[in-house]
Amino acid sequence: MGAGPVGENIADRAVQGGLSVAIVECELVGGECSYWACMPTKALLRPAHALAAARRVPGAREAIIGDLDVDAAFAFRDGAAAQWDDSGQVGWLEGADITLVRGHGRLAGERTVEVERDGGRVTLTARHAVAVATGSVPVVPDVPGLATASPWTNREAISTSSVPTRLAVIGGGVVASEFATMFAALGSDVTVLVRGDGLLGSLEPFAGERVAAALTEAGADVRTGTSATEVVRAAATGPATLTLTDGSTLEVDEILVATGRRPTTDDIGLDTVGLESGQTLTTDDTLRVLGPDHAPIAWLYAVGDVNGRALLTHQGKYQARAAGDVIAARATGATVDDGPWGAHVATADHAAVPSVVFTDPEVATVGLTAERARAEHRPVRVVDYDLGWIAGATVLAEDYQGQARFVVDTERHVVLGVTFVGQDVAELLQAATVAVVGEVPLHRLWHAVPAYPTLGEIWLRLLETLGRDTATAPTS
Ligand SMILES: Cc1cc2nc3c(=O)[nH]c(=O)nc-3n(C[C@H](O)[C@H](O)[C@H](O)COP(=O)(O)OP(=O)(O)OC[C@H]3O[C@@H](n4cnc5c(N)ncnc54)[C@H](O)[C@@H]3O)c2cc1C
Ligand SMILES: NC(=O)c1ccc[n+]([C@@H]2O[C@H](COP(=O)([O-])OP(=O)(O)OC[C@H]3O[C@@H](n4cnc5c(N)ncnc54)[C@H](O)[C@@H]3O)[C@@H](O)[C@H]2O)c1
């Protein structure tokens, strides 16, 4: 159920494992990520990043002869969203030998899915398993007047064909930070209402601080410790007035709600299998749903955003590879490899989730923050380094601004977590993910020589700061 990036990958792996698969989709094949999230947002942020990068390089800066072309940027976004037409992905499903059933799916008892379409119903009975990959939907907070003020969610914001003169963004997470960056670059007067004391609260504190400072420099008004208490909007297309916690008012042309997401489980028949409508589908590490007795339900899987483990496309697709493979293995009686880091489990969800926030500066993170490592009572040393001091950075941009943090386990001599903030740090992330997942010993990292002059030299600076004595090769 659900043909987003996660559903597609479960289906593909199960077919490759020898099963036949039907996939049920009520909107567009490709899901939120393809049409209203990852792809179009990154495409609409990219012109702003490219322009900012050029402005930081003498010689290139002087060649800029105009402002960001909003219509051309929208056209680039439209292409990234495949013009909101899923025929390409439907063709991919056909090529992968997956049967598409369009309509709204609901569980109807054990291994059964009822699909409502064109006013009729089709019942599908699975021989082996049902996987729920219905994703997530935005949460609209219960602020008087907000729900009826036609607020934007990510969908309206990313598919707009006009730039609001004044935009209020409610929230301080990833969606709020990326859209604030985007609309400030497109020319909106952006006000970000952050309930807490900073942006990107779950990451290292310097990440949110640097992103907030850059947004402010770009002309946005980032107000921390501030929420809306009431919204008044006479007409859906007219101005809206927000009353804020400090008693002041703010008039804007659009309001973007970016206050988190909840699983799409309201209307998928969970009651027919003893679960509660609207609940997050908690799973074991092979992605089987835990029933009311906390034991896994043998035939029911929940994968991707709907299980709340890590709301990221790449992490959902990683779970999908494990789920599709283990469904096929259990169906065919093959060996199930479900120990930690086995082929049929999503162990990395607990230890090494990589993510990039595509603001300017970018934020790239994997593994544990210093706070989380300490909360887990790990013996840690934190190493901070100014990315602007790296030779590669000095030629990438004039006055490069950035910071790196490594969280190192001082007993096991491995890296537990990494955070990079700065221009173009996204492409540094995979090396960090390999180091964390592989638990590469520090003494071996001394032999992973970064090319000169690249940003990757940050790894050498980390090791030099730690000192080689802390990274001695084992004698045995
Ligand atoms: C603005 C924004 C930007 C993002 N950017 C990134 C990014 O850059 N990188 C990243 O890794 N992640 C990003 N994410 C997160 C990413 O979009 C999600 O993690 C990802 O889409 C989850 O995939 P999924 O398949 O689990 O769910 P979805 O993509 O939501 O797909 C679920 C599918 O199920 C269908 N469905 C739902 N209910 C039913 C039903 N009852 N019957 C049939 N079909 C049903 C839906 O129509 C949908 O097609 C972003 C999210 C947002 C909101
Ligand atoms: N580049 C990426 O990988 C990317 C981009 C966008 C989204 N995502 C994913 O999508 C998910 C959802 O993102 P998000 O930003 O919506 O959620 P989030 O959980 O990251 O942030 C929600 C924010 O809203 C605030 N908030 C919550 N309730 C509020 C209220 N009532 N009033 C005011 N503020 C309130 C929170 O304090 C927090 O700052 C994330 O988990 C993220 O992983 C990823």
Concise description?
FAD binds at residues 42, 105, 134-136. The chain is an alpha/beta fold and 476 residues long.
Structure in words:
By secondary structure, the protein is an alpha/beta fold. The chain has three domains: 5-36 and 81-138 and 262-348, FAD/NAD(P)-binding domain (3-Layer(bba) Sandwich), CATH 3.50.50.60; 147-259, 3-Layer(bba) Sandwich (FAD/NAD(P)-binding domain); 361-471, FAD/NAD-linked reductase, C-terminal dimerisation domain (Enolase-like, domain 1). It has 15 helices and 22 strands. It has a five-stranded antiparallel beta sheet, sandwiched between helices. Strands 10-9-8-14 form a four-stranded parallel beta sheet, with helices on one face. Helix 3 packs antiparallel against helix 4 (70-80) and helix 3 crosses helix 7. The longest helix is centred in the last third of the chain and has 20 residues, at 313-332. The termini are far apart. The relative contact order is 0.12. The chain binds flavin-adenine dinucleotide (FAD) and nicotinamide-adenine-dinucleotide. This is Pyridine nucleotide-disulfide oxidoreductase. It comes from Serinibacter arcticus. FAD binds at residues 42, 105, 134-136. Disulfide bonds join 33-38.
Jot down its keywords.
476 residues, FAD/NAD(P)-binding domain, Enolase-like, domain 1, 3 domains, globular, binds flavin-adenine dinucleotide, binds nicotinamide-adenine-dinucleotide, NAD
Strand-helix topology:
Blueprint (H helix, E strand, L loop, with lengths): L4 H12 L5 E4 L5 H5 L2 H18 L14 H11 L6 H9 L3 E4 L1 E4 L4 E6 L2 E6 L4 E3 L3 E3 L15 H6 L6 E5 L3 H13 L2 E6 L10 H13 L3 E4 L3 E6 L6 E5 L4 E4 L1 E4 L3 E3 L24 E3 L5 E7 L10 H20 L15 H4 L3 E3 L4 E6 L2 H6 L4 E7 L4 H6 L5 E8 L4 E9 L6 H10 L3 H4 L12 H9 L10
Parallel strand pairs: 1-2, 6-17, 8-9, 8-14, 9-10
Antiparallel strand pairs: 3-4, 4-5, 7-15, 11-12, 12-13, 16-17, 18-19, 19-22, 20-21, 21-22
Cofactor: FAD
Keywords: FAD, Flavoprotein, NAD, Nucleotide-binding
Family: Belongs to the class-I pyridine nucleotide-disulfide oxidoreductase family.
